[in-house]
Specification:
- By secondary structure, the chain is mostly helical.
- The radius of gyration is 21 Å and the shape is globular.
């Protein structure tokens, strides 16, 4: 795996906003954006595939015009890829004789089939235009960023140059790493601390739940019996959508107020005890994160700023770069067992592209 400058080297301060008389909202503030991981660059494809980002965004504009709900699916794909084995597109790999793929692990069973189709379609377009020089991992990263932007969230530049991993994580490893919806704040903070993400990062990344839907089975444990931290009217409406012992696993929006808009209303929901998962609502119940939730609820600009920082950190976790890994010809299947062979193919493709410029 590629090495990178430790995020712990970035100095952190604490910004505390007075609230009423004795309460303060404290949010950690990093000085500047996170360092760029070794092997990545903001200008990685400026010469070899200058239209890459515009190609991705234009295609997603078409996809989201048909169904804006696909934005949440692509953003979730990025999370599930990066947290398990790093941002190496391993979540896209099909299973093999060595075992089931990451897609078969319980946390990934609800990943949208359409998300895989969208990524495959963009991957084909990019390789047709630029040659086999852009990884599936970079495409996942770009689609996640554009899912945020096209849903009304902040725009930002992402470092590129990731290569695709040649193996997938086991089901147990996936279960051990991905935080379940019934996890409390202590579990969340401990899990993300292992990834060098602090409390502010954790609360900011949870804000991705401002778009998308969730299955009833992910939160009915809070309804039957009813969790005391849940608003009564909110719980009553959820019970109508998700009756006890229902034969069909229904769905509902994750953000009650603006379900298809990337904004800070998710945090307003939490302050009104209208969080869907335990992992959501407990962020407001727990004293360690309550102030951060409140600060994001009253200041969308602050939320956007911290969300971008957290996304940049997450998007560079354990990236594969340089001569490691490969650039997959098909996102669901590794090219071969020979990294050397794939590297030769990559170089040839780059030379072909450069000669056509």
């Amino acid at each position: 795996m590629a090495s990178y400058t430790s995020f712990n080297s970035v100095p952190f301060l604490f910004s505390c906003i007075p609230l009423l008389l004795f309460s303060y909202l404290c949010v950690s503030e990093a000085q500047g954006t996170p360092p760029i991981a070794k092997g990545l660059s903001l200008s990685f494809f400026d010469t070899t595939c200058p239209k890459l980002e515009s190609m991705v965004r234009k295609q997603l504009e078409k996809d989201f015009k048909k169904d804006i709900g696909q934005a949440a699916g692509l953003l979730r794909m990025h999370f599930h890829d990066c947290f398990v084995q790093g941002c190496d597109a391993s979540v896209l790999l099909d299973g093999s004789a060595s075992g089931p793929s990451e897609q078969d692990a319980p946390p990934n069973l609800s990943l949208r089939a359409k998300s895989f189709e969208i990524i495959d379609n963009i991957h084909r377009q990019v390789h047709k235009r630029c040659g086999a020089i852009v990884s599936c991992a970079d495409i996942i990263t770009l689609t996640a960023r554009d899912a945020i932007v096209l849903s009304g969230g902040p725009d930002y530049k992402v470092p590129l140059g990731r290569r695709d991993g040649q193996s997938f994580a086991t089901t147990q490893a996936t279960l051990d790493i991905l935080v379940p919806p019934f996890a409390n704040t202590s579990v969340i903070l401990a899990a993300l601390a292992k990834k060098k993400l602090d409390a502010t990062d954790s609360v900011a990344l949870s804000g991705a739940h401002t778009i998308g839907k969730a299955h009833c089975s992910s939160f009915t444990d809070r309804l039957y019996p009813q969790d005391s931290t849940t608003d009564q009217t909110f719980a009553k409406n959820l019970k109508n959508t998700c009756p006890q012992n229902a034969s069909v696993d229904g769905t509902t929006v994750q953000d009650l107020r603006t379900p298809d808009v990337f904004d800070n209303k998710y945090y307003v929901d939490l302050m009104n005890r209208q969080g869907l998962f335990t992992s959501d609502q407990d962020l407001y119940t727990d004293s360690r994160t309550r102030g951060i939730v409140t600060s994001f609820a009253v200041n969308q600009t602050l939320f956007f700023e911290k969300f971008v920082i957290a996304m940049l950190k997450m998007g560079q976790m354990e990236v594969v770069t340089g001569t490691k890994g490969e650039i997959r010809a098909n996102c669901s299947v590794r090219n071969s067992d020979s990294t050397l062979l794939s590297s030769v193919v990559d170089v040839a493709a780059q030379e072909l592209e450069l000669s056509s410029l």
